[in-house]
Amino acid sequence: MKTRGFERVTAYENAGIDLPLRSTVHAAGYDFIAAETISLNPGEIKLIPTGIKAYMQPGEVLYLYDRSSNPRKKGLVLINSVGVIDGDYYGNPDNEGHIFAQMKNITDQIVEVAKGERIVQGVFAPFLLADADSAEGTRIGGFGSTGA
Ligand SMILES: O=c1ccn([C@H]2C[C@H](O)[C@@H](COP(=O)(O)OP(=O)(O)OP(=O)(O)O)O2)c(=O)[nH]1
Ligand SMILES: [Mg+2]
């Protein structure tokens, strides 16, 4: 039975991408790795592909958090602070639910993210609905797909 977890997206199926892993027994975060080597110019913001999509139960979300070591060790920050990966992003017809980490180079030098390097961590969590919630429809894409 599938409850929640990770799969590779088709485009990276044979790219040798490891599925996200926790590094210790009590770790909350599943570490995602970069699916490609990417170079960021000083101040530049880029979407780093992870090659991964995540499935989950209704009422669950996957939060993407920065690694605490990124700013000082890599000179990178997750520039949208926290990535909210919705359950209906998985398998969407636009990009299959491919999860990206939106990183900014905060240094004055080029920063390279190597393929296979751990870049962000994902934490599954439950969420609550407001009274009289009236959401309908399903997601097609991400990063502004629902309009301005
Ligand atoms: O760091 C992130 C944040 C989001 N997403 C994907 C999954 C999420 O379900 C979708 C939409 O994210 P969000 O709702 O935060 O962005 P938006 O700017 O509101 O875009 P949309 O109009 O598509 O909802 O984009 C990522 O891959 N990485
Ligand atoms: Mg949105």
UniProtKB/TrEMBL annotation:
Key words, A-Z: Hydrolase, Nucleotide metabolism
Pfam family, any one: dUTPase
InterPro entries in UniProt: dUTPase (IPR008181), dUTPase-like (IPR029054), dUTPase-like_sf (IPR036157), dUTPase_trimeric (IPR033704)
The EC number(s) this enzyme carries: 3.6.1.23
EC primary class: hydrolase
SUPFAM superfamilies attached to this UniProt entry: dUTPase-like
Catalytic activity: dUTP + H2O = dUMP + diphosphate + H(+)
Domain dUTPase-like: 17-129
GO molecular function terms attached to this record: dUTP diphosphatase activity; magnesium ion binding
Domain of life, source organism: Bacteria
GO BP field: dUMP biosynthetic process; dUTP catabolic process
Annotated family: Belongs to the dUTPase family.
Protein name (Swiss-Prot/TrEMBL): dUTP diphosphatase
Record lineage: Bacteria, Bacillati, Bacillota, Bacilli, Lactobacillales
